[in-house]
Amino acid sequence: MANGKFVIGNVDLFPFVGTAAVTGNIELSGNLLAFQQTSTPSAPASGAAVLFYSASSVFARFPSGDTSNLVTAPGVTISNDANNRLTTAGGDSTLNGEANLTFDGSDLEITGTLNVSSVIHARGVPSGTVAGPGSYLALDANNKVVVTASSGGGTVTINNDGNNRVTTAGGDSSINGEANLTFDGNTLSVQGGVVHKRRSISSTTTASVSDYYVSINASGDIDIRLPDAGTLTAGQTYVIKDEGGNAHLHNIAISGSGSQTIDGLNFILLNSPFAAISLYTNGSDKFFIY
Fold first, then answer.
1. Digit-coded pLDDT (tens) for 178-231
2. Cα separation of 221 and 249, whole Å?
3. CATH class of 198-289
4. Alpha-carbon distance 276 to 121, whole Å?
5. Considering the chain, what is the average pLDDT of its residues?
6. Which has the closest alpha carbon to 54: 72, 45, 67?
7. Torsion of Cα atoms, 13 then 18 then 24 then 26, to 10°
């Protein structure tokens, strides 16, 4: 039943009860009242659809016999809802308002960690003002990261500063220039003692990349195997010493890795008490005695 003006084509219909077949557009001025349908209407002919009201919902019946509920779905409930919070899926068909992720229309604010697996691009920003060569990252008054044309943040003070001095940490957030340790780009000058790593062994062992002094205290025959020269830096050295003084009693052999040689030999022997040998590598496939 229609309350108001109901126009089909060029025909005005006033209060109407029953079924109206319409071809074309329906213009409605006022309210359209649909009364409860006690039974599902028959499927219409091909190319048509029947609208009817039943059980507090509006339905459409199609020629195939299918019926669809046309009532709008209920509103979505957002957990932890608050102004400007971005929402994320809860994994159970729910939405959650993220307190640590907000957007007010201008600023995106993240409280926590931003993990980036690719690249962040800042587009349309003029060079030399807030981005580009000569620009810097800084914190503004609200502790937000911004790009600025000013370097801001102060200078570093080096105690005992001097030309070519190597700096060391002072242990109290200070930096010290070491007068006895300098480097001019070519030569490292040490005006003091130098301490090298010392490793003591008593059985067959492969020297490590970080070894320097290898001290031997043998109670039986022993083999010192050098690392693969390709894993070392050209010029890297080893000093191997019979500290126990037993080389005349036990074979102390020093060998290269695989087919690598020491002065062209596969191995050398220390065979006199307290004997020692100094070696360096070409960083590729050989060791040399010096």
1. 999 999 999 999 999 999 999 999 999 999 999 999 999 999 999 999 999 999
2. 9
3. mainly beta
4. 61
5. 83
6. 67
7. 50
What are the residues whose beta carbons fall under 8 Å from the beta carbon of 88, sequence distance 6 or more? Answer: 95, 96, 98, 101
pLDDT digits (tens, 9 = 90+) for 15-54: 555 666 666 666 666 666 666 777 888 888 888 888 887 8
What would the pLDDT profile of 75-96 be if each residue is shown by its tens digit? 567 889 999 999 998 888 788 9
Domain ranges in the chain are: 2-69, 78-148, 158-190, 198-289
Per DSSP, the residues of 181-229 read EEE-SS-EEE-S-----EEEESS-EEPPTT--EEEE--SS-EEEEPPPG
d(CA 209, CA 237): 10
Continuous segment of H or E residues that includes residue 245: none
At residue 128, does pLDDT exceed 60? no
CA distance 284 to 224: 19
Predicted pLDDT of residue 34: 64
Q: What single-letter amino acid sits at 164? A: N
CA distance 16 to 37: 15
Per-residue pLDDT at 14 exceeds 80: no
For the chain, counts of helices (H) and of strands (E): 0, 26
Instruction: Tell me what pLDDT residue 1 has.
Output: 37
